[in-house]
């Protein structure tokens, strides 16, 4: 009876905590591919984000609600409008990009690090495209 009671009377599992993150980076840095990979989605037919998208990324102990913001010039100026309520930041950069693009990424990262709504939050900086021949090391980035 104890065994049966333990199996049937447990109730639903406790809810996993949810965290709201913002994912930013220049266009083509791999934000959409990263989130698709984390959600176990097919890497085929990935289209660059032209505004923003939200994905719930499930982990065993938590759910990350990631707001991915497009990275083109005309969208980056609106990033700060989507920062409110964020509890962490994922900054994705293309480690194989041109010097000019890397400099633009540095400027955007520094701007985000200094933003009042983000400056106290944890940041994950992901140097993507490490598989490309032109990829820079972490030290170079």
UniProtKB/TrEMBL annotation:
The keyword GTP-binding applies. This is ADP-ribosylation factor-like protein 15. It comes from Rissa tridactyla (Black-legged kittiwake). Gene3D superfamilies: P-loop containing nucleotide triphosphate hydrolases (3.40.50.300). GO terms for molecular function: GTP binding; GTPase activity; metal ion binding. It holds the Pfam family Arf. GTP binds at residues 25-32, 71, 128-131. Keywords: GTP-binding, Magnesium, Metal-binding, Nucleotide-binding. Belongs to the small GTPase superfamily. Arf family. Mg(2+) binds at residues 32, 49. The keyword rRNA processing does not apply. The gene is Arl15_0.
